[in-house]
Amino acid sequence: MSKLFRIARLVSVLFLPGLLFAQQSTELPALKQEAVSEVDRMQTFTQQMVDQIFSFSELGFQEVETSRYVTGILEKNGFRVERGIAGIPTAWVATYGSGKPVIAYITDIDCIPRASQKPGVAYHDPMIEGAPGHGEGHNSGMAVNITAALALKKLMEGHKITGTIKIFPGVAEEILGSKALYVRAGLFKDVDIVLGTHVWHEFSTSYGTGDGKWSGLVSVQYFFHGKAAHAAGAPWDGRSALDGVSLMNAGWEFRRAHLRLQQRSHYVIINGGDQPNVVPSEAAVWYYFRELDYPHIKSLYGIGNSMAEAAAKMSDTTVDRKLVGSAWPPFFNKVIAETQQKNIEMVGMPKWSEADQTLAKALQKEIGAKVEGLNEKIEPLKEPEKNPIGGGSDDVGDISWNVPMVYLMFPANIPNLPGHSWANAVSMATPIAHKGSTAGAKVQAMTALDFLLQPELVKQAWDYFRNVQTKEIHYESFLAPEDKPALEMNKEKMEKFLPQLKKYYYDPAKYKNYLEQLGITYPTVKAQP
Ligand SMILES: [Zn+2]
Description:
The chain is α/β, with parallel strands linked by helices. It has helices spanning about 5-25, 30-40, 45-55, 65-75, 140-160, 180-185, 240-255, 295-315, 335-345, 355-365, 395-400, 430-455, 455-470, 490-500, 515-520; strands spanning about 80-85, 90-100, 100-110, 165-170, 195-200, 215-225, 265-270, 280-290, 320-325, 405-410. Helix 2 (about 30-40) packs antiparallel against helix 12 (about 430-455), helix 3 packs antiparallel against helix 5 (about 140-160) and helix 7 (about 240-255) crosses helix 8 (about 295-315).
């Protein structure tokens, strides 16, 4: 071997990987275009998945059919599936590829109690009275992520792109029940970038604390134990567990006036006793304690615990508690958000039809909201709000404090709705959700390509994560080591409605879409007076 040749070889060995990446990243625009075409080609697949999961309507921890359906599709398409992760039977992780970087997709799959609603109908018209329904739109996220992942897999195979794609479901998100457990189980230890996605009426992404309308929380149930007695014959022999609950709630209402304005707390009585002539030996109340950051949430939780113990003392009962969910306030990665925003702008808003706008406006009118139809434009990426005021929570927060992450909001719903209600289910098995999910899938695939092909970008995302986001704040779980997934939640509610729900499962072999199966004219709106 001549000296010159040896040097040339050494140079090529040293620089070849870099050259390869450079080459691939110049191909990036072409690859993105290919991903977009692939997602467009899969529109029917995406629509069927949106409709199918809508028809399952499963509550948190009971997502049995949904998980079976989704993992079946993934296995058929060559993904390796591991079920029952983090001790949760309906949770799983699907993996394709090998090596770095590892890109994870995540999105929720559970629905809302009492949100049953006929899709495409602009007034309250439940499919099954009192049944659960997709009154937030979590039926669409999996269609977004899986469409993106399948398109991406095809590109990775065709162009020999290395890296790993993982897909996770957000189980029991509505009760903030799974993601802190995923983190505790170490499921994100080898993950480089997390691309979460969530239904919304805008096509947007954010970084930092975003619009400032996020809170973190603990969700905890207090069980009071008393002594049963005849409520008239021998009340002095009884100790009312319901007294414990009532005293705790009264105490909380007084204390509320002396808490930071940023806190939000609410409760429901989940067991108020059986009948008035029996002194209730068992009663229970369920609290959400929300605040802006870990120390304040922890302190609110502490006040709640003292109040429960004080109420038990006053009522001569005992109390124990169970943590059923927790969430850090989300904090998203600036580098990923900036990358994602460019892809959102490239894809653009879906083209809404007149029928889509008619449905949206009629629903807005029906519920007394501002009538402005569907969003038509994309807003630029905003600076995070300097003075967050708090609001809802999402347990992806826990993931966002462990791995660089963003949350893509894709436009599959109608603006100005109340959230967590039948109204938010109206668009969710209609062309609005189908088109919004296709648009979302394009961005998910394109953003994954950005990070698969540009190792420098992965490094920058981690620099932001290490040197900005977690410079002073370090993740600590709200979970105690003995806390377990609240698997029994929603079990009875689901069992009650399952036989009725099964009659309405979508059958894509027979019907083009779910509206056709249900015989619904799109859109169905009230006649103008
Ligand atoms: Zn949600």
